[in-house]
Design a protein that fits this description.
alpha/beta
């Protein structure tokens, strides 16, 4: 029995944001239709080293695939150690036969599947005429958030803000060149939000930095940085005047700032047609994402299939 090992370089050769968005969308539809079994994520705080480990898993019955992701978040790594802030592995297995299929880099899977949620959410919740985007966080996640938004929206202008100004400037230069659109660094959160149509936040902030009064009517926001208890990017008041969508209620309610009465729907319910998405041009919508195992498994399955088609990766004898 052979196990396919896919490195970061292998995944970068096969994964596309379009494929990942489509796979993640179908995974959420399956969740709403009862085709998915997914334990609650498990978080291990490594307070001694200011880090965190997360364990996320899912069984997608209609695809006969199961997966587990073990990933870390050590947000001082880039500055102090010149290492990624997020790393780990994803294990993919055949649910019908109980055979492991692949082990792959979790950094790339996480980046693409987290970016993809911004694309899926914008597809169902953003105004179709959205042209101006603001991205908060100029790291890997901020980059894939923009890639995903561009798959579903015809953006003309992008503002990026990071607490490290040099990171914003680097991001703007790189993404402008890569994508051929106007991406510019801004000096304040408020400046980034003036006249904005769609917002993506991808920071590890534990203090809300986006104020309610700065959000224009009709804005769609996807927040992926506030992925577990203790982290928060949006002023709590924003949630009281918005249509709030989450990936999974039970997971979302682990966060202090979310209450049951604030949650309108799960994303899968909207995708499956059980609830409607945006209903007016002035409505403010929020996709408050925690990140689910189904996203990792869906992205990993796409990567596995594409890698086999293109004969990429390394096979090792497993048993």
């Amino acid at each position: 029995m052979e196990l396919l090992v896919l490195s970061k370089k292998d995944l970068e050769k096969v994964l596309t944001m379009k494929d990942t968005i489509d796979a993640v969308q179908e995974a959420f539809r399956g969740l709403a239709l009862g085709e998915v079994e997914m334990p609650m994520p498990y978080i291990i705080d490594v307070r001694k080293h200011n880090g965190v480990w997360g364990v996320k898993s899912a069984l997608i019955n209609n695809l006969d695939v199961v997966g587990v992701k073990l990933s870390s978040g050590y947000f001082e790594n880039p500055v102090k150690h010149n290492l990624p802030s997020i790393t780990g592995v994803v294990i993919l297995a055949d649910a019908k036969l109980g055979i492991p299929l692949a082990v792959m880099d979790a950094l790339t899977i996480t980046a693409y599947r987290t970016g993809a949620i911004a694309g899926v959410a914008a597809r169902f919740l953003a105004r179709k005429d959205s042209e101006i985007a603001a991205v908060f966080g100029a790291g890997v996640q901020g980059r894939t958030q923009l890639l995903a938004l561009l798959e579903v929206l015809n953006l003309k202008e992008v503002r990026v803000y990071d607490i490290i100004p040099e990171a914003s400037v680097k991001y703007a230069k790189e993404m402008s060149s890569k994508l051929g659109i106007d991406v510019r660094a801004v000096k304040s959160v408020e400046e980034a939000l003036k006249g904005v149509d769609v917002v993506s936040t991808a920071t590890p902030s534990k203090t809300p930095y986006i104020k309610s009064e700065w959000i224009p009517a009709g804005t769609h926001i996807t927040t992926v940085g506030s992925d577990h208890k203790g982290k928060q990017e949006l002023d709590s008041q924003i949630y009281y005047k918005s249509k709030v969508v989450v990936d999974k209620r039970e997971v979302a309610l682990e966060k202090d700032y979310l209450k049951p009465e604030l949650i309108y729907a799960e994303l899968g319910e909207i995708i499956a047609g059980k609830k409607v998405g945006r209903t007016s041009m002035d409505e403010i919508t929020i996709m408050d994402s925690s990140g689910l195992g189904i996203q990792d498994v869906a992205a990993a399955l796409v990567a596995y299939r594409l890698a086999r088609e293109k004969n990429l990766g390394t096979y090792i004898e497993f048993a």
